[in-house]
Amino acid sequence: MAESIVYHELAGPSRRYWGLLALLGVPLALGAAAYFYIEHYGHIVTGMDNQIVWGMPHVIAVFLVVAATGALNIAMAASVFGKTSYKPLAALSALVSLALLAGGLAVLMLDLGRSDRMIVAITQLNSQSIFALRVILYDGFMASVGVYLWFLLERRMNRYVKPAAILAFLWQLLLITGTGLEFGFNFREVYDSVLYAPMFIAFSSAYGTAVFVLILFAVCGWEQRPVSDALLRRLKNLLGIFVGASLFFAVLFLSSKYELARSRDVARFLLVDGGVYAVLVWLGQIAIGGIVPLALLLWSKVSRATISVACALVVLGGLAQMYVTLIGGQAYPQILFPGMVESSSFFDGEIHPYTPSLPEVLLGLGGVGLAAVIVAVALRALALLPERFEQTAGPQA
Q1: If residue 19 lies in a helix (H) or strand (E), which one and from where to where?
Q2: Exposed e or buried b for every residue in 119-158, given b needs 16+ CB within 10 A?
Q3: How far apart are CA 154 and CA 145, in angstroms?
Q4: Strand partners, 136
Q5: How far is CA 381 from each of CA 9, 17, 61, 140, 182, rounded to the nearest angstrom?
Q6: Helix, strand, or coil here: 26?
Q7: pLDDT of 189-244, one tens digit each?
């Protein structure tokens, strides 16, 4: 049998920890201030309008939600697919997943406007709305991951870890597939592709793994704990596979848009004529978020610094991709009657301008701060960190 895992709380003197918590609370406080400012004056103080209704807060929020499902991959590799080398990291993986989802959902809720009426949406669920039905997916994911984490840490419930993990894994796939199809079933020209489902699964795995690895390295740096070359190599290879898959689906999606005559103008907008959106596709998503980190992961020596840089680049590329998907998808003119000439005063055929305002950026960063505070508090209050990152594997069932 494999050796049992001993967990402990985040170490370090109290004064140092409270200093860390205060630092992490800065973006959370700024996000709260931005929310109250927007709530008081209305969305007129933001860069959003009737054409761009999902702004910068949604970019960061959707990134957090997508990364949340991918951050669970380490735990699923251990508990569902029997990769015992990842088992010591399973509890941290589940915690990061829950924290990222909480941060993303908080921003989504606070950015909608009239958050005081959220209870109406909860008590009067519109079963015909994909947005309303996603609430069920969010709740189910948080519940399944929470139960899995409980079974993982409670020794008496260890026998039920695998069934709980399988449920969490299936819900993970359901949530990220539903998130991708929310765009794929949207008839705006930049969307309208079933490739959004597998593409978002790949994006989720890359973004979530990158965020998890950065948090893992931050924890190891805090406790001054080394990470073995064997574990670094596994994380490097895993992230490389996910980044490669993300790059593949991104190129496939853009190529499919260009090959279809009805969407060729959209492809030219994304790749050539879109201004900032074309720059973000080539420089942000493809180069910074794909080619460069993939090259670092494939051809560089195993080191904490190299993997950290690759993870940071993947996160930046992910934010660029979400900006192009959300903002670019709304900025591109919507064709209401294909093949016919339309005429009105509502921006017909025009690329709609959008400039993020400071309150929007701060509100989005508030979600990042909330996720960071949740991780820091949970690690200090609960025994979630393994004494050893390496486990001697025994016979597997």
Answers
A1: helix 14-41
A2: eebeeeeeeeeeeeebeebbebbbebbebbbebbbeeeee
A3: 14
A4: none
A5: 7, 12, 26, 25, 37
A6: helix
A7: 778 788 888 999 999 999 999 999 999 999 999 988 888 888 899 999 999 999 99
**Helix, strand or coil, per DSSP, at residue 188:** coil
Answer whether 319's CB lies under 8 Å from 58's CB.
no
Look up residue 368 and give its two tokens. Answer: 């990042």
End-to-end CA, the chain: 10
Question: Which structure tokens are listed for 289?
Answer: 């978020």
250: its two tokens: 């991104």
Residue 185: both structure tokens together: 């079933």
For 78-95, the pLDDT digits (tens) are: 999 988 889 999 999 999
**3-state secondary structure string across 140-187:** HHHHHHHHHHHHHHCHHHHHHHHHHHHHHHHHHHHHHHHHHHHHHCCC
Phi-psi region of 193 (alpha: psi -120 to 50; beta: other; left: phi over 0): beta
Closest to 166 measured CA to CA, from 64, 72, 71:
72
Query: How distant, in Å, are the alpha carbons of 4, 73, 90, 94 from that of 158?
Result: 11, 19, 13, 15
pTM listed for this prediction: 0.91
**Alpha-carbon radius of gyration of the chain:** 22
Do residues 394 and 1 lie in contact, with contact meaning Cβ atoms separated by under 8 Å? yes
Q: Tokens 């898959």, residue?
A: 245
CA–CA separation, 60 vs 323, rounded Å? 9
Tell me the C-alpha distance between 289 and 283, whole Å. 8
